[in-house]
Amino acid sequence: MRNVAESEKITINLGFVDLGHVDLLVREGFYGNRTDFIRTAIRNQLERHSNEAKQSVSRRALQLGVCHLSAQELGSAREADEKLDIRVLGLLSIGSDVTPELALATIRSITILGALHATPAIKAALADRIT
């Protein structure tokens, strides 16, 4: 079983007044902490725009969720003389068993909305193919 993180850490800058409002709502018990407030705010905005997002996902033919590519899968694509155009909304994980040469031979393009987990060598090899 592979170990894939359930979330990605992000950092935001917030104005002092906005931060004070967040802290006030936390202190008043509306939220457990700042992170709880931020997650709730993000989920509310995602829900607010869910129809537009669904239409865009469909239009762009994006795979939702977690996609993992192993050396075996990419080796099969190479044997079939296939070039992959990978489109993911979520997490794309490229196995540590994948060499830069195999990735270059089999992956034509990567569109990632979310996070890419891969070795630094794979990221460097595919840098001009990632959007």
TrEMBL record:
One of its GO terms (biological process) is regulation of DNA-templated transcription. Keywords: DNA-binding. The keyword Calcium does not apply. It comes from the Bacteria. GO terms for molecular function: DNA binding. This is Transcriptional regulator, contains Arc/MetJ-type RHH (Ribbon-helix-helix) DNA-binding domain.
